[in-house]
Design brief:
- The protein is an all-alpha fold and about 450 residues long.
- The protein contains 19 helices and two strands.
- Helix 1 crosses helix 3 and helix 8 packs antiparallel against helix 15.
Length: about 450
């Protein structure tokens, strides 16, 4: 790193060549997830190929702008940590429902704008809730984030959900090859190459995939060189009460997920998230969501995929992710470049995703290792929270007969597990309870505060 030694690693600026390589890793890690939301929503609404392409380029453009706001920051907007922003999957079902029941894209964008403004207004309230995220809760949430992402990597490794050859041995073999390359580079290559192990793995995997017919670059020639998203391309926003209410529920879910992601990155980078910085990060989410409604795209949130990349590479500079944001802006303005990235086959991303998402789960375990599990009910808090968080991941249809608002909250394993961890921590560690008998393990009194629960995280360390 080429900055003053007094600078925190988060604020250091790597040399240009490293900045580009590290940033490209983040783009490749989140690209498939970023374009998935416009593809799903646009496909459900049966949009034309031209409109679908427009949604994707608009999404990439706003993804880049949102990432720059979050990493670089201005005034009270942006957490100023290495956080990638992307469209939230929590909003997919409500948006499809709004778009296909007569409201269309204008009703979606009207509800998205209102939800973004609500997030900006509620951000200080969430900032004051940070004391309800002690290491017991944050470690559990980080663990749930990592484990809930693993099925995404598994689907990629098998060929991508909906692929005709899904689960074919050659797909899994290619993913395993990429995983082996990533691990080999990280273990045996020099330190700098080890930090871009994911990029090297994806590059080598792509080089192997092309001659074996996994992908082709035919779509690159058909893509336009320049594409600029204009505000309200699909018409002026329409504000429907039912659409707004459903999107406000989504806003609460995304704020909960973003809080977990910000705390996770704070743990990994050594810059603990405080109430003010949490509010700034959530406020940036809200502003980005408003921009999404204006520029023909969707609600934005911190991307957990890239949290794993920060933990695996140990590259903590926010300017690396800001460089990735700049690349996304270029991809949004130059559709031909976006088509090149889109040609990377899913198994290649799956091999890299396994190690990245596993790194998130491992970081959660590392945080939980600081929590005292003797003579208290902390093990129950972790066990039940993980179980509730994994339920919709393992059984996606478990809540399909419940009301829409309930599905919006509980179908996200991250928000379901996070809410459960907060409630159980309050129940077992803060509310008065039964007195322990002499035969029970001796620990802190029920309702007391154990090590790693209420102590500030820096004191625990």
């Amino acid at each position: 790193m080429t900055t003053a030694t007094s600078a925190h690693p988060v604020d250091e600026v790597p040399p240009a060549r490293q900045l580009a390589a590290f940033g490209l890793q983040h783009v490749l890690a989140m690209y498939a997830g970023a374009v998935a939301v416009p593809l799903i929503v646009g496909g459900a609404m049966k949009l034309s190929p031209a409109d679908l392409a427009y949604l994707i380029t608009a999404d990439l453009l706003v993804c880049g702008i949102a990432t720059l706001i979050q990493c670089v920051g201005f005034w009270r907007f942006g957490v100023r940590l290495p956080i990638m922003q992307g469209c939230t999957f929590a909003a997919v079902s409500p948006m499809v429902l709004i778009g296909t029941t007569g409201g269309g894209l204008p009703a979606i964008y009207g509800s998205v704008i209102v939800a973004g403004l609500a997030i900006v207004l509620l951000a200080p309230v969430f900032g004051r809730l940070l004391r309800f995220f002690p290491p017991l809760v944050t470690g559990t949430v980080i663990l749930i984030i990592g484990v809930s992402l693993l099925p995404v990597a598994g689907n990629w490794a098998a060929g991508g959900a909906g692929a005709e050859d899904f689960g074919a041995p050659r797909n899994v073999a290619l993913a395993a090859f990429v995983l082996a390359v990533v691990l080999g580079v990280q273990r045996f290559a020099p330190a700098f190459l080890g930090r871009i192990a994911v990029l090297i793995g994806i590059t080598v995997g792509l080089a192997v995939a092309v001659p074996f017919g996994f992908t082709d670059f035919g779509g690159v020639g058909d893509a336009d060189w320049l594409g600029v998203s204009t505000p309200f391309h699909f018409g002026a926003p329409v504000f429907q009460a039912s659409a707004i209410i459903s999107m406000l529920v989504v806003a609460l879910v995304t704020m909960t997920e973003t809080t977990g992601d910000l705390i996770a990155v704070g743990e990994m980078t050594g810059r603990e998230v405080e109430p003010r910085s949490l509010s700034d990060g959530l406020r940036a989410d809200g502003l980005s969501t408003v921009l999404g409604g204006v520029f023909n795209t969707f609600p934005y949130t911190a991307y957990a995929q890239n949290v794993g990349l920060v933990g695996m590479t140990r590259v903590r500079s926010r300017w690396v992710v800001a460089a990735a944001g700049g690349m996304l802006v270029l991809l949004g303005l130059l559709p031909k470049l976006g088509a090149v990235v889109a040609a990377i086959p899913a198994p290649v991303l799956g091999g890299a995703g396994l190690v990245m998402f596993g790194s998130v789960a491992a970081s959660g375990l590392r945080t939980l290792a600081r929590v005292d599990f003797k003579g208290n009910d902390n093990l129950t808090v972790v066990a039940v929270s993980v179980a509730v968080g994994m339920l919709p991941v393992g059984v996606p249809t478990v809540y399909e007969k419940f009301p829409d608002w309930f599905q919006t909250v509980m179908n996200s394993g991250i928000s379901a597990g996070c809410l459960t961890a907060i409630v159980l921590n309050l129940l077992f560690n803060h509310l008065p309870g039964r007195a322990r008998s002499l035969s029970e393990p001796q620990g802190l009194p029920v309702g007391g505060v154990e090590k790693g629960v209420e102590q500030p995280r820096e004191e625990v360390v």
